[in-house]
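Much of our argument rests on the idea that a fold can be written as discrete symbols. Part of our work consisted of pairing the sequence of a single chain with a tokenised description of its backbone. The amino acid sequence and the backbone structure tokens for this protein are reproduced below.
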Amino acid sequence: MLVAMGRLHASGIPGLKPDAFTYTAVIDAYAKSGYRGAAARADQLLDKMEAEYIAGDTDLKPNTFTYNAVINALAKSGESGAAARAERVLQNMVNRQNTGSNEDVKPTTINFNTVLDAWAKSGGGRAAAERAEEILEWMD
């Protein structure tokens, strides 16, 4: 969908340029798809959005919903290392907020809860439970 919209936009249809809302919808679809590799693809789309935004495309500015869609994709994936990757995305949000580089990525309890869910589903046993508790303390 993103590729098709990009091609149509490039051919002269300005209203079909993919924006942050479009990317977030596609990332959310990956999260809900159950497709193997969906979480990695969602993470790649976020990386692409961030790079394009930094390069000057203000239409691709990721927001809290975008980040949470990626965290959710990771939490649902069941992939090895997904919980740590979800936590990295959350940490990226916190860093962006703390540096003031993106006011639209203020982490919410939903973001933290989704990372906690990722750890709960990680199969990491006691270590995962302890990490989840550390994240809970981080929220305070």
